[in-house]
Design a protein that fits this description.
Radius of gyration: 17 Å
Strand order of the largest sheet: 6-5-4-3-2-1-13
Order of helices and strands: HEEEHEHEHEEEEEHEHHEHE
Number of strands: 13
Helix content: 10-25%
Shape: globular
Structural class: alpha/beta
């Protein structure tokens, strides 16, 4: 993937483009606006998070250098884990995009400040409080990772984002498990982007906090009548991923008519409404 590959993507008024950056990193292009979600474009986790029992080793390099992304309008971070709010990536993005707006859960604004992002560039997101952007809307949705976590003010530390682009609706879950009320919040969303790497006692014992399983993701898409299901968080680290074939097997066993798309790093996908 190159900068020009993104910038030269031509869209009609009713189209948007998704570019996959790995893990849960997604770049959305809409009406020549660029929205970046959970960009992880370094090996920060590999360098700083390995233990005797868990070795974090990227399975593929970043599809683009963060320095090339000097045209970003909005950066959305779902929570403070390093593969979602990466110090190296966010610091670089702030340097090359001095006018970009960074949106993150209200309780972790201080984390972004510590990465060198100016306070005037940061918006603290609060669940169910709509954020009006230029030509689109962002609706923060609580995320359970593996549980719902709130600060002393009742604000959620982990969020997903429902993004309204004209008549097209997308949901990026961040890291999230199913909880009571999530289905109702997402009814008739066009595109669901959700993690499918699951959770287990053994992962949690090693401080690897889990997500929904492939089965839960497929059932969520079925219950919400989603037009498209996009699985995430399964391919970058062997210690916290799954074989993508198992996701496909699960989908065809539960709801074989469900539209889905599995990305390769650096791939572009055009959405039409």
């Amino acid at each position: 993937m190159t900068k020009n590959f993104i910038l030269d993507t031509e869209l009609t008024e009713h189209q948007s483009a998704l570019f996959y950056l790995g893990q849960e990193g997604m770049l959305i292009k809409y009406h020549n606006k660029y929205i970046l979600i959970d960009p992880y474009l370094s090996d920060y986790v590999d360098q700083h998070c390995c233990t005797e029992t868990v070795q974090w080793i990227r399975r593929y390099p970043t599809p683009i250098d963060a320095k090339e992304l000097d045209f970003i309008d909005y950066v959305l971070c779902t929570h403070e884990h390093y593969d979602h709010s990466d110090p190296y990536t966010l610091h670089t993005l702030a340097q090359v995009n001095p006018h970009a707006v960074f949106i993150a859960p209200e309780p972790i604004k201080a984390v972004l400040l510590s990465y060198g992002i100016a306070s005037k560039q940061i918006i603290g997101a609060i669940a169910d409080t709509e954020i009006e952007l230029d030509g689109c809307k962002i609706i923060p949705v609580p995320a359970a990772h593996e549980e719902l976590h709130q600060d002393e003010n009742g604000h959620y530390r982990e969020l997903g984002y429902k993004i309204l682009l004209g008549s097209l609706s997308l949901y990026h879950a961040g890291d999230c498990c199913i909880y009571n009320g999530l289905t109702e919040r997402l009814m008739h969303t066009d595109v669901l982007m959700v993690p499918v790497n699951g959770r287990s006692y053994y992962k949690l014992r090693d401080d690897i906090i889990g997500n929904m399983t492939a089965e839960e993701a497929v059932l969520l898409a079925k219950e919400t009548h989603a037009s498209m299901l996009i699985p995430m968080h399964y391919d970058l680290y062997d210690v916290n991923g799954i074989n993508p074939a198992s996701f496909v097997d699960t989908l065809f066993a539960i709801n074989p008519t469900q539209r889905f798309h599995m990305f390769t790093p650096g791939e572009r996908y055009i959405l039409s409404r």
